[in-house]
Design a protein that fits this description.
The complex is a heterodimer of chains A (about 110) and B (about 110). Chain A has strands spanning about 5, 10-15, 20-25, 30-35, 45-50, 55-60, 60-65, 70-75, 85-95, 95-100, 105-110. By secondary structure, chain A is mainly beta. The model of chain A has no long low-confidence stretch (mean pLDDT about 90). Helices cover about 0% and strands about 50% of the residues of chain B. Classes of the chains: A mainly beta (about 110), B mainly beta (about 110).
Chain lengths: ~110, ~110
């Protein structure tokens, strides 16, 4: 079963704009990770945020985590055409080592 | 460092046939995962190995799917016999430590006709 649900399912923005996608999950987590998947390729890890962290940055990426609302958001600033991809959140739980992926957000950057 | 290798990249078979996928993880990674990703969905874990032992295979359809990781390095995933609903991308991933970043291979796209 899918633990995370990403929102929106699809997002199209102009190049240079910021893109925000959200992830909600159902049970308490240990870590939450975001992955990117280009069409026809495997997944690439973007960022990991631990349950005791609230915000994390990596280059043009900013991730927030609100454990009280069981939600996370991924912000991509100054988007580029190369950011066109599907983005997935994935969670793991204390005592359960496997990652459970959400359904993904399909991001399209319009040049 | 070389990434996770998978082969073949594409496979088309008829239902009831058998198929096998191969994965070579990043050197030194003890944990290896096989995922199934159906079009439009996120990856679903099929099986997790720690070295050559199975940690989790709760979502592996064991009546038709099997996997092994001999010598704790390469792994193969087999489907026998295949069904139409097995059409998906099969992803292999490895990690150095559990709960750490997973590194994914390019996947094998399986089409069952």
């Amino acid at each position: 079963s899918q633990q995370g649900e990403e929102d929106p399912q699809a997002l199209s923005i102009q190049e240079g704009e910021n893109a925000t996608m959200n992830c909600s999950y159902k049970t308490s987590i240990n870590n939450l990770q975001w992955y990117r998947q280009n069409s026809g390729r495997g997944l690439v890890h973007l960022i990991l945020i631990r349950s005791n962290e609230r915000e994390k940055h990596s280059g043009r990426l900013r991730v927030t985590l609100d454990t009280s609302k069981k939600s996370s958001s991924l912000l991509i600033t100054a988007s580029r055409a190369a950011d066109t991809a599907s983005y997935f959140c994935a969670t793991d739980n204390f005592g359960n080592e496997k990652l459970t992926f959400g359904t993904g957000t399909r991001l399209t950057i319009i040049p | 460092e070389a990434g996770v290798a998978q082969s073949p990249r594409y496979k088309i078979i008829e239902k009831r046939q058998s198929v096998a996928f191969w994965c070579n993880p990043i050197s030194g990674h003890a944990t290896l995962y096989w995922y199934q990703q159906i079009l439009g969905q996120g990856p679903k874990l099929l099986i997790q190995f720690q070295n050559n032992g199975v940690v989790d295979d709760s979502q592996l359809p064991k009546d038709r799917f099997s996997a092994e990781r001999l010598k704790g390095v390469d792994s193969t995933l087999k489907i026998q016999p295949a069904k139409l609903e097995d059409s998906a991308v099969y992803l292999c991933a490895s990690t150095n430590r559990i709960w750490d970043t997973q590194y994914f291979g390019p996947g094998t796209r399986l089409t069952v006709l």
